[in-house]
Amino acid sequence: MQNAVISYPRIGALRELKFALEKYLKKELSKEELFQMAKELRKRHWLSQKEAGIDFISSNDFSFYDTVLDTAYALGIIAKRYKELNLDSFETYLAMARGYQGEKGDVKALAMKKWFNTNYHYLVPECDSVEDIKLNAEKILNEYKEAKQLGIESKVVITGFFTLFKLIHFQSEAIKEEAKARLLNAYKFLLIELNKAGVKWVQFDEPYLVHDLSIADIALFKSFYKDILSQKADLKILLQTYFGDVRDIYDDLLILDFDGLGLDFIEGKESLNLVKKGFSADKILFAGLVNGKNIYKNNYQKSLNLLKELEKYAKNIVLNTSCSLLHVPYTIKNESKLDKGFLEHFAFAEEKLIELKELKELFLAKDEKHPLLQANLRLFEQKENKKNEAVNKRISELKEADFKRSPNLKQRRELQKAELNLPLLPSTTIGSFPQSLDVRSTRLAFKKAEISASAYTEFNQSKIKECIKFQEEIGLDVLVHGEFERNDMVEYFGESLEGFLFTQNGWVQSYGTRCVKPPVIWGDVSRLKPITVAWSKFAQSLSSKLVKGMLTGPVTILNWSFPREDISLKQSTLQIALAIRDEVLDLEAAGIKIIQIDEAALREKLPLRRSDWHKEYLEWAIPAFNLVHSGVKASTQIHTHMCYSEFSDIIKEIDAMDADVISFEASRSNLSLLDSLKEAEFKTQVGPGVYDIHSPRVPSVKELEEVIEKILAKLDKEQIWINPDCGLKTRGKKEVEASLKNMVEATLNIRKKL
After folding, report:
1. Is 327 annotated as catalytic?
2. What is the extent of the structural domain holding 748?
3. Tell me: the pLDDT tens digits for 7-66?
4. Maximum pairwise Cα distance, the chain
5. Residue of 169, 481, 629, 694 with catalytic role
6. Taking the model in full, what pTM does it have?
7. What is the DSSP letter of 196?
8. Do 31 and 133 share a structural domain?
């Protein structure tokens, strides 16, 4: 029995990579200093795994921004607009990730999408020519050599050919066909180079295999790997999958010349049954039993029972994580405020290394009285006080009518038109405004009790006044209060609800330098008192224009938290929905006429197999949102927002959320969603994002006019709202003000034409 980690968090225990890269971008750190810090971080991460007794440690799992981007860059998949900037290699890489606006040009960043069913975002590779597709293995080989110098024989990790090929945006079918052969040659050349370097194991990550696969997909995969594996020579190849099971292609994977097969036994519902069908004696099973996506301790008895079952069918087993540990925080060692009684139930990335080590020891010992096993059993036998009978009673008493809003959308629209009196193409923002240093430092001072509650309120009210004044001056139609009191759109609500726990340093990378700190759902969820009402009421008192009330929806709160494992996701979501419903009704009673309930993460727990969508997720996720707003008056306008996912295939379900207005991220995907909206005869009013807020570049008035005209060509003018594609919290004040001024000016110009 050996153990392995698919890949490790790269951001650092205290977000060292984030801060270093941000300093570099501000020209406060040289490139040499940044690269040296990254090298030290990799060393620290490798040695921590070595010290924990991990047998298979990965290299090339480090990235300054995103590993899919790294793979594309290493293979020369670089769109012409980035090459034409004539920047050095690292600056070209960053231009692809963040966009570029400067003396050498003005280009948008690559599109960004959610990584399968997680809150991590990958950059979508863009291929508009094939001439430069060839391998540059410098990063891959250098990181392997770095690990080797530390006495670590690492397995080299790279995004697999099939997954990469499925994720690339090809400019045309002709380019796609031309690129196929060139990419195959690049992967084959990679194996040759790795052989020369003395690499023992290569891990090809192929999470796309857990989707529903067509006959053509399977044929494509087999043809790819028969060709690639012809160059393996002395290399051992691990085909690694995660986020589900590989039922459509399992038999073929056994036949192909892979030395190891990585299967997910946490999210892979059929993985055990597949192995029971048979497993190749010449292959090693990398069994993903330690959950890479949640932070609760592993139940050793359950894992050992599963290992015993797998042992009947697989001759050689390596105990593995279910997916990359990128999706969990780094370590509980930096948590000094949470009670030990809670912490003993948690395992972050570093603690999961210990779990892998202990499970290996227990499996080899085969001793039911082993102290490690007994301690773990006691942990799971503890009776925790997680129940709230009043909450469960409310859920049991819910009726079908509680999930439906009346009158219908068409009738509501006429009532709201008269009540709200908004112009054609109303302009607004998604909610948050930049959080400057004084905002963050004042919030921290309040948390440390260094300033009083009244001083904190006074400070935030002054910020809200500035924000409202700016929006009025530039001419936005529907205003927001800026959310200066909020640390995070989920954490803020969790802190005001019963049933949540919070970490100090439980940071998880979302994309690039953006990290989030997901709350932990520990017990039954309820709302004790209003959360946002006072702030919204104050903001509305400052303006004759409408100010939106801003809330986070129940599905997003669940999906951006670490969920309980002792009750269903549906039950947890309904509990949160009732709490947010109470807040919606209180906002309405306070005179707020437009209420936005963000469901940015609606798609995240959507099963990757279409056949499971409704029964396992949509049949309760959509009604949970309906429950939140079904009690408001017809004249109250309900908005929601969704970002950085593919929505085309669930458009009808989104329409069934029965919101009055939905804003989508659309700018990075070049408004491709509009065709799906038109085809589905989408009824809800729509605000497709007209510019990308995850890039520092400022769009011109002309550019924004062109975007709005594109939207008008696809959707009815009465249906369209104008807004950025996401909240503005992470951006700088100057770029936000310039971008919004341009957005309003462009809207007014188009409005005059209409």
Report:
1. no
2. 409-434+475-753
3. 999 999 999 999 999 999 999 999 999 999 999 999 999 999 999 999 999 999 999 999
4. 80
5. 694
6. 0.90
7. H
8. yes
